[in-house]
């Protein structure tokens, strides 16, 4: 019953939307090759309107999220004069990568209630339930701080160009230390901080060529892979020895 | 030139890795240490995940030790018989060590134990070796003549199961080398290294082997211990990064050849004092990290792993 009601609600709001997002991506696939140095993805699009433009501050928010994984954050403390990992918090789900770009200042373009609903800002994306330690927010903050430093978490205010309140574009930089997976890409349109439309797509990040082959071999055929590693090591050791033997002669 | 590592999933500078491999390879050839105790922290430092660094490092040590052993075999400075006895002990020791490691991991705090192990053993071995070789150098200067042999008869020589180790010029019981092998095996498994830096002093001071033979013999047994470790990591944790290993070992095998040649030209005391200084330096750095307030109190690790 609830499901039917929800479906009805969706159907009713669907056609009634005054503004709609039409999206383009520079690429919907990122290939990790041996010389991968990171990549830049261009997200662009337009806002389609059937009627005249409604009032209110318009903003566009773009988020790109890497695959979720559980993470352990540890904290050191001084015990008997030495620094030891004492407390640990398990964060149930945290994206391996998260970028959120907005056309204005994110906090002004998005109501807190809407953020909770759609999980847009970084703190609302990180899911944490286990509470082994009283101050687990400090651990979440540490996770965000550390990953921000590695450019894995990015908050890009004023990074979406919005022209004539119709066309928008932004570039999201994916760093070189990227993990594989489907990168969920969402675009939100807000008026006065309320989401009026959203659009979702995926960017697929994949290893290709030699990288793909080695990764698969290491996981599917571990014994063979291990033996291959040893064979290479032995061959290289012998090769260098033989080479130097020749050089001395 | 940046290279993306398929297993480590990070992008690193290829020339940096070649250089690191070469540097550690030279040390390996000179001193008969695998270099794992140096390389592993260096890899952590450039951002390789710890599990991948430890596993891949083992693979690289196979290459540089093999290259080093070949050079030593040509000079007939490998005691194969002694190496085999040590190896048998070593494999028993690694089995015990892995069991101990897993038990400690279930208690937590295994990281701390590993670090304390490093500081303690590096500190003791480094200090002892430093003092001893300094005395040896002083003595040989004073006397001007041949260096007095350090071989003394003690309880070690009264044990049963005596065996002749011709290359080392020893006729001793197999029990001490076997025990040394076991002890080094246990420590190597806990600390995730080949154990050369413990094995070398143990052979010199406990077994009374001549320094020149010690290096080749140590390398000989390290090959097998690290090959075993590599296979273990590759099949259970999938953490051997072959691209990283190749980059490191190209530098490593060349370095080992150069190191062996440098080592042959140097006096035994000088060799030992240099190794002592290096061991003490690494120990100092680790102790420093434990004592000084870290810049970042928090660390992020994959679930279940120990970072």
SSE arrangement:
The complex is a heterodimer of chains A (about 250) and B (about 300).
Chain A: H1 2-16, E1 19-25, E2 29-32, E3 39-49, E4 58-65, E5 68-79, E6 82-95, E7 98-102, H2 106-109, H3 112-118, H4 122-125, H5 136-149, E8 153-156, E9 161-163, E10 167-174, E11 181-191, E12 194-207, H6 209-220, H7 222-248
Helix pairs in contact in A: 6-7
Chain B: E1 2-4, E2 11-13, H1 14-31, H2 36-45, H3 50-74, H4 80-107, H5 110-143, E3 162-165, E4 170-173, H6 175-191, H7 196-206, H8 211-236, H9 242-265, H10 268-291, E5 298-302
Antiparallel strand pairs in B: 1-2, 3-4
Describe what you observe in this structure.
The complex is a heterodimer of chains A (249) and B (307). The longest helix of chain A has 27 residues, at 222-248. Chain A is built from seven helices and twelve strands. Helix content of chain A is 33%, strand content 41%. In chain A, the strands form three sheets. A six-stranded mixed beta sheet of chain A has the order 2-12-11-4-7-8. In chain B, strand 3 and strand 4 (170-173) form a beta hairpin. In chain B, strands 1-2 form a two-stranded antiparallel ribbon. A two-stranded antiparallel ribbon of chain B has the order 3-4. With 307 residues, chain B is mainly alpha-helical. The model of chain B is unreliable at 303-307 (pLDDT under 50). The interface between A and B is large, with 62 and 62 residues.
């Amino acid at each position: 019953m609830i499901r039917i009601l929800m479906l009805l609600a969706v159907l009713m709001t669907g056609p009634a939307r005054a503004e709609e997002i039409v999206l383009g991506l520079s690429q919907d696939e990122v290939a990790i090759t041996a010389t991968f140095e990171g990549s830049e993805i261009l997200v662009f699009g337009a806002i389609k309107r059937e009627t005249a433009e409604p009032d209110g501050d318009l903003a566009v928010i773009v988020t790109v999220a890497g695959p979720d994984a559980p993470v352990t954050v540890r904290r050191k403390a001084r015990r008997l004069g030495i620094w030891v990992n004492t407390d640990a918090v398990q964060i149930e789900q945290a994206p391996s990568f998260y970028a959120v770009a907005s056309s204005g200042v994110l906090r002004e373009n998005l109501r807190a209630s809407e953020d909770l609903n759609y999980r847009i800002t970084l703190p609302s994306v990180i899911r944490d339930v286990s509470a082994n330690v009283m101050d687990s927010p400090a651990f979440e903050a540490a996770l965000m701080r550390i990953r921000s430093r590695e450019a894995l978490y990015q908050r890009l205010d004023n990074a979406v160009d919005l022209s004539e309140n119709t066309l928008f574009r932004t570039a999201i930089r994916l760093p070189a230390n990227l993990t594989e997976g489907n990168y969920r890409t969402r675009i939100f349109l807000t008026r006065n901080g309320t989401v009026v439309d959203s659009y979702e797509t995926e960017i697929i990040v994949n290893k290709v060529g030699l990288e793909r082959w080695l990764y698969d071999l290491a996981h599917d055929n571990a014994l063979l892979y291990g033996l291959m590693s040893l064979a290479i090591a032995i061959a290289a050791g012998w090769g260098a020895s033989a080479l130097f033997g020749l050089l001395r002669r | 030139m940046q290279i993306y590592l398929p297993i480590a999933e990070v992008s690193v500078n290829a020339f940096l890795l070649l250089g690191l491999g070469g540097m550690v390879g030279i040390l390996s050839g000179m001193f008969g240490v695998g270099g794992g105790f140096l390389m592993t922290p260096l890899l952590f430092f450039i951002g390789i995940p710890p599990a991948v660094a430890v596993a891949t490092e083992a693979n690289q040590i196979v290459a540089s030790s093999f290259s080093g052993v070949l050079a030593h075999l040509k000079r007939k400075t490998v005691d194969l018989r002694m190496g085999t006895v040590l190896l048998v002990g070593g494999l028993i020791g690694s089995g015990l060590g892995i069991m101990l490691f897993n038990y400690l991991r279930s208690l937590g705090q295994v990281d701390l134990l590993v670090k304390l192990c490093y500081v303690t053993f590096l500190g003791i071995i480094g200090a002892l070796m430093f003092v001893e070789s300094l005395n040896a150098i002083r003595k040989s200067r004073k006397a001007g003549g041949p260096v007095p042999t350090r071989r003394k008869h003690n309880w070690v020589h009264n044990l049963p199961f005596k065996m002749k180790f011709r290359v080392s010029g020893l006729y001793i019981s197999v029990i001490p080398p076997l025990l040394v092998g076991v002890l080094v095996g246990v420590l190597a498994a806990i600390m995730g290294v080949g154990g050369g830096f413990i094995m070398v002093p143990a052979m010199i001071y406990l077994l009374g082997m001549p320094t020149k033979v010690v290096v080749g013999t140590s390398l000989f047994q390290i090959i097998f211990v690290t090959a075993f470790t590599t296979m273990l990591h590759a099949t259970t944790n999938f953490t051997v990064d072959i691209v990283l290993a190749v980059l490191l070992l190209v530098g490593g095998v060349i370095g080992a050849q150069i190191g062996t040649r440098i080592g042959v030209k140097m006096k035994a005391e000088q060799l030992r004092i240099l190794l002592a200084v290096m061991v003490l330096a690494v120990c100092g750095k680790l102790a420093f990290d434990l004592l000084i307030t870290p810049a970042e109190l928090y660390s992020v690790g994959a679930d279940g792993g120990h970072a």
